[in-house]
Specification:
Blueprint lengths: L1 E4 L5 E6 L2 E10 L14 E8 L1 H11 L8 H13 L6 H13 L3 H6 L2 H21 L7 H17 L7 H11 L17 H8 L14 E9 L2 E8 L4 H11 L7 E6 L5 E3 L7 H4 L5 E6 L13 H11 L3 H18 L3 H8 L6 H22 L4 H20 L3 H11 L2 H4 L2 H5 L3 H13 L3 H13 L8 H14 L3 E2 L2 E3 H17 L14 H8 E5 L2 H11 L4
Parallel strand pairs: 5-9
Antiparallel strand pairs: 1-2, 2-3, 3-4, 4-11, 5-6, 6-12, 7-8, 7-9, 10-11
Helix pairs in contact: 1-2, 2-5, 2-22, 3-5, 3-6, 5-7, 11-15, 12-14, 12-15, 12-23, 13-21, 14-15, 14-16, 15-16, 15-19, 21-22
Amino acid sequence: MKKLKNDEVNTVRVKERGQDVLILKKMSSSSPAPTAGSAQNDWRYKVVAGTPEKILEHLLKSMHLEEGECKEADILLDDFLLTYTVFMSTNDLCHALLRHYCSKTLTEKQEGSDNGLYRKRKVLRIVTQWVYLYRTLLREDENTKFVFKNLYRCVLDDLYEYPSLEKGLKELQSLFWIPRRHTIDEYSPHKKNTTNFHQFSCREKWLQPKGYEAEEVFCRVYVTDHSYVSIRTKMSMSAQEVLHIVAEKFQQCDEDLVLMAVTSTEERQILQPNDVSLFTSLDPTTRIFVCKKDPADFLTLTAENDEILQRTIQMLGMNTWQLANKLTNFDWDLFNCICEQELIYYTFHRGNTTANLDFLLQRCNEVQLWVATEILLCSQLSKRVQLVKKFIKVAAHCRALRNLNSFFAIIMGLNSAAVCRLSQTWEKVPGKFKKLFSELENLTDPSLNHKAYRDACKKMQPPKIPFMPLLLKDVTFIHEGNKTFLDNLVNFEKLHMIADSIRLLRHCRSNQIGMEDNQKDHQDVKAYVRYLHIIENQETLFQLSHRLEPRT
């Protein structure tokens, strides 16, 4: 292997068989640009591009065992682990790490075992950080579990020769919930026998996670073809429990309603009360409707419906701060579940799950539609004006609570075409509310690449919930504006930029949000926010809008 300096200043190219395998940019860790006479220790090498294998080799060479000892190396490790799925499979990375852990270089054979121990500890450090970042995603892959078992066995083999590996072993135990504590003496050569490995091999569930709560899903229960109630519920919830939620939302009696599955070919089937896992067991094209006992009698939802008027009165009676608070708590639950890697999967269209990210994006869209739905279903002008005022106040509270996702959604709902055209309604909104709305609206101004929003978000201390569609737009812009591979080498500068954007999630979640206490007088607000009633069809919304205020 031979290093050759390129004509470009401060660029180093590592070549094998006449081909570039790693491109580094030489830079000073103490200043933006290297200066003449800088000490050798002040120089660092930033990865520009390379093959996956050489990038990993450079990472192992440059990383330090103590976090923070070298900021550039810590960032390189984070960049690599966040984005490796773009250029190599999880199985390939597992085998590469196992290979680096077990291999011995010529230098190590000549100079002793210290270098080998240092490399082994580095590999364990990468594994520790890797599993920490990916949480349960790695444990769902059988090949990955198999390779990690082999790595675990190798660490056990080395434990007597390298006592300092016990710390790394304990980290593996804590990361994968291995129940048994291993010690150095237990694995000395005099005691190592088939019994030990038999005990280990009998523990096939060592990588299985602890019992988690049942997975939650977002689902829709339709009231008409274009109107539904959005429900966040556990997958195992029964039809009777779902029916009870919907009945409460529309102030109906459970006994008067049934749930009905309607297929894409209009075939109908009444669901039984004890049916479970409705939203995962049915065909994806099948929709679930709620209707009266007579299957032909769907609930009617019009602006003249007395039940709609009662729901409007119910919302107008809610405290705007509590409403914003419950919206924020709901959004935070969704936002906190998003794995950072979901942004990579979403951007690069990988087959991996992006369910948590999808939930938050769906919620943002539904909050926007909910605002329009509530206003357009209110037939009385005076109450409609009160609703507009209330939503403006809720948006202001969401901004104060640093929930920019719901803040944006509410403003977009108020700015939707079907609501904007209600001139009689907006004319009666007091001037101070119009002024407040104008100030809030300025934060959503897209000019100069959403500068107003970015400046405001930057000043906010965590915890905060960013506007996720804009963050995804930033990552997508980097992806589409830069090639992933340059002359068959991974364009690592591009991946670093993407990782930098993704790290915003980590910053936003660096503090935990303070949840409100569960006082009984707030439960109605919590239930209201959890189960939003939405009309999704724009044509239907416009029909309601023209019915309220006909075109003159």
